Amino acid sequence: MSYRFKLSAVSVVASLACAFVPAAHAATPITVTSQSAPDGPIRYTVRVTSKQFGNSQETRTIRSGESDDFTWKTVPPGGPVPVSDACPSYSSLPLDTNGAMIRQTQIRFAPVVASDGTATVQLSFQARTPRGVKSVTSGGKTLQCPNDVAVSQILRFTMPTNGSTKKLTLADGTEVTVSAKR
């Protein structure tokens, strides 16, 4: 073998060794944990049980730090209550497609999950329902407008996100049950 060939072979082997060594050392280590990231998606089920506002339930998936709005419109016992557009607060009443007042429940759900999996939640509850009619004078005319009942309450609480359930009772007796699972 010639001296020139040996030098070329050594040079090629050394170049290849240098090319592969840094790649092996540059990889970042992978850490495996059994916990989900606190900002990952969480599946929440919200259930409302109320004599005044009816029963509703829905399941959704959101992330920590996001908020979600639940709105349920249902027909009250006795049916929808006809309403004139001249009635006070007409624009804020929950109406069906025929313009009659129905009951409505709204919840804004805003969880923030800590690294240990505990969610701190703010829940805003608002509901309205008609309770018959009342006589109202507007613009010199006597109108029959819905006698509506409204409830509004904000709750703050903590709960685990391991599938357990948290039951809350509002001031009017309405029960809101929340379950959370990653």
Automatic annotation (TrEMBL):
The UniProt entry, under PROSITE patterns, shows: PROKAR_LIPOPROTEIN
Residues of the signal peptide: 1-26
This protein's source sits in the domain of life called: Bacteria
Keywords recorded for this protein, A-Z: Signal
Quote the Pfam families the UniProt record gives: DUF6013 (PF19476)
InterPro entries named in the record: DUF6013
The protein's name in its UniProt record? Uncharacterized protein
- Organism, scientific name: Paraburkholderia terricola
